[in-house]
Design goal:
Blueprint: H1 7-36, H2 40-56, H3 59-69, E1 75-76, E2 79-80, H4 81-96, H5 110-120, H6 130-136, H7 138-153, H8 157-185, H9 197-214, H10 218-237, H11 241-260
Antiparallel strand pairs: 1-2
Helix pairs in contact: 1-2, 3-4, 3-8, 4-7, 8-9, 8-10, 9-10, 9-11
């Protein structure tokens, strides 16, 4: 009997084949450039092009790469690297989702995001440099782009769990690094992502606490309790009081939700 593939699966297989061909071509081109001894700038250009092609043809890979870039303090013309990478998500969405419709772009946050944007608009009136303010607002649109595209392309619980686990893994690595640095230097440290890590570890702490409460297996509960403890210790070592207050307040609201939702 023959196996009938869904249109979405066929589209994914086609993209994977195209991605493989392009990757092999770029590898060949890279080896040729090295052999001919062409400039470093062209090597970098080919390397960047290979990343963009691979991201555009594999949405899940794009999301993982975006999460990965969050943990490196690298900027391109005012914008963090993750902001630049997020723009590729839209391109990747159209490449990888064959039956995309307008309704797929709606999320549970759509109305909230629209209201948020409306309340931001008046701030441009008092801006000393409206053009620069509008330019930097691209950070906000990048966030919206990530929410919309990820909601449209990834809807399986299994895939969402993998992304969350990958995020928690990176937070854990940097948390351990912070604990090490703080113990050696005795100074205020943030690790590889810089000061933004206080936001990452705050979110990671809340997620790990939620997983602790909802996990049914004892072993998994123990693991999540250890991870949560490491996150909280690293958050304390950042010496950022605003982050501490945000974490405590969110934790309090979480406990209220768990208490009254039963």
């Amino acid at each position: 009997s023959s196996i009938i593939l869904a249109p979405e699966k066929k589209y994914e297989i086609k993209n994977n084949i195209v991605q493989l061909i392009i990757s092999l071509f770029l590898i060949f081109l890279l080896l040729l450039v090295i052999y001919l001894g062409i400039s470093t700038e062209k090597l970098i250009l080919i390397f960047v092009a290979s990343i963009i092609f691979n991201l555009a043809l594999n949405f899940k890979f794009s999301v993982y790469f975006l999460v990965f870039t969050l943990f490196f303090s690298f900027y391109i013309n005012y914008f963090h690297l993750s902001i630049v990478v997020s723009s590729i998500l839209l391109l990747s969405l159209f490449f990888t989702k064959s039956n995309l419709e307008i309704k797929d772009l709606k999320t549970p946050f759509t109305i909230s995001l629209i209201i948020y944007i409306i309340f931001i608009i008046p701030s441009f009136i008092n801006s000393i440099n409206p053009g620069l303010s509008l330019y930097k607002t691209l950070n906000l649109f990048a966030m919206i782009l990530v929410i919309v595209t990820v909601s449209a392309a990834i809807n399986r619980r299994k895939d969402i769990d993998k992304i969350i686990n990958f995020y928690l893994f990176l937070v854990l690595l940097n948390s351990l690094f912070i604990i090490y640095l703080a113990s050696v230097t005795g100074k205020r440290v943030f690790g590889f992502p810089g000061v933004f890590f206080v936001d990452y570890v705050g979110l990671g702490s809340i997620i790990s606490v939620i997983l602790f409460f909802f996990e049914k297996k004892i072993f998994q509960k123990v693991i999540m309790s250890i991870i949560s403890s490491i996150f909280i210790i690293s958050l304390i070592l950042t010496q950022t009081r605003n982050a501490w207050l945000s974490f405590v307040l969110t934790l309090f609201l979480l406990f209220l939700y768990l208490l009254f939702s039963k």
